[in-house]
Amino acid sequence: MPVLARHGALAALWFLIVATPLAGAAERPNVLLIYIDDLRPQTADYGHEQMVTPNFSRFAANGVRFENAYCQVPTCGASRASLMTGLYPTRERFPDFLTWAENDAPNAKTLPQRFREAGYTTVSNGKVFHHKNDTAARSWSEAPWRPEIGGRTFYNDATAEWMKTNQETRKLPGGKVVKKVPMWEAGEVDPLDTSDGKIAAKTMADLERFAKNDKPFFIACGFAKPHMPFFSPEDTYKTYPLKQIALAEHRRMPQPQPAGLRGVREQNAYVPMTPDFSREVTYNTDEYHRRMRQGYYASVSHADDLLGRVMDKLEATGLAENTVVVILGDHGWLLGEHDQWAKNTLLHDALRTALWMSGPGVPQGAAVPSYVEFVDLHPTLCELADIAIAAGEVHGESFVATLKDPNAPHRDHAYTRFKPGDSITSADYQYVRYRDPRGRKSALLIDRKNDPLGMTNHAGEPAYAEIEADLSAKLDAKIAKATAK
């Protein structure tokens, strides 16, 4: 049976949860945190009707979806370190994807560490921290686990044959030179035999194991897709015919372009060969855009399928009634907007990310309009488990109130930083201040209400001077808080 048609009897029973108090209950809730690398709000329940994501939709129908969730750093390692410690980034702390929380914040307790110290069994499957062993000794009850194959593992004989003659290379951060792999592959592979499939299987086995004892658990499960390269089972590719894929509405940078805003280069680490390996697709042509979107969409559907399997297992084991489930991307992602791909930029689509929660007492089918920051997840989950955090230990603020009442206010803006820039985003504006190593300054001010595509930069315009001053003051307050600890 095709992957995307699999529903099963268990799926119909998803999350028939008995409502209990969100915090302070006699029985502490389990936690299942599912990271999905590079997932932006690109699912059907977020309004993208072309997406085939039935399991995300069913999860959203049985929990809450956050409409304005923002990462603190738009790159994986730094974003995860920030969330796990509950600390804002600075120029020195959590600067890039190679971040080690152990090095940048050695005295900060991690989220799984707090749960472990509170008597939970804590487990890491797949990519949770960027580095497998980051804070491992104090965070996890068991050694962090990853499969023997990774996100760049290809599955088809045709890909293997092409790799024999491929001469294009890339340099890894440590200086090692390796062959580039192709950007796309519709894999002739069972979904559970992929790298992420093995992570899902390990997580399902852990759920069965923990269902046999009464000790609470904190499982973090990290899927790699839809991170590039877009290697996904062939059924998922067939779901998105190339000719039916629309292009981004806007394909130029905001004008005038601030000096600090540079293009993203991550996509250059892969070779854009057509699936039959007959030719290389020219960068940023319409065909390139459609193939990139097709690959991303297929990979999201692959993640959706695996999510469904894990959730079915949670229900089958009887654990769903007392498990808080968090599903999130680690940052946003650009799908051709501004002719850019991936993250590693302060353009808006790289900052807003996907976030859902479900569990005992959480409303069903609700959307949270208030702004939340990823650092807020750390104190929120601790409050749900009745784990105390001393004042000043984290920068995040618990949003348990929004889990009781999705319309309750939390934040009205969110802070993100990356490399030379710091950003504030609200419903009406996004403001970014850049300062390069030589001290040269530039800025980006987007009027989101009147220019939702982010085409025009109003920084420095007299008509926006009062707004810019207010946003700049808010940015100063965030930076001061971040640098105070």
Which key features would you list for this structure?
485 residues, 4-stranded antiparallel beta sheet, 13 helices, 27% helix, choline-sulfatase activity, calcium, Choline-sulfatase
In short:
This protein is α/β, with parallel strands linked by helices and 485 residues long.
Can you walk through the features of this model?
- It is an enzyme of class 3 (hydrolase).
- The protein has 13 helices and 18 strands.
- The protein is an alpha/beta fold.
- It has a single domain, classed as Alkaline Phosphatase, subunit A, CATH 3.40.720.10.
- The strands form five sheets. Strands 1, 2, 3, 7, 9, 12, 13 and 14 form an eight-stranded mixed beta sheet that branches.
- α8 runs parallel beside α10.
What topology does this entry show?
Blueprint: H1 8-11, E1 30-36, H2 54-61, E2 64-70, H3 76-85, H4 101-104, H5 111-117, E3 121-126, H6 136-139, H7 157-165, E4 169-171, E5 177-179, E6 184-187, H8 195-210, E7 217-223, E8 230-233, H9 234-238, H10 286-316, E9 323-329, E10 334-335, E11 341-342, E12 352-353, E13 355-358, E14 366-373, H11 377-384, H12 400-404, E15 413-418, E16 421-426, E17 429-435, E18 441-447, H13 465-484
Parallel strand pairs: 1-7, 1-9, 2-14, 3-7, 6-8
Antiparallel strand pairs: 2-12, 2-13, 4-5, 9-13, 10-11, 15-16, 16-17, 17-18
Helix pairs in contact: 8-10
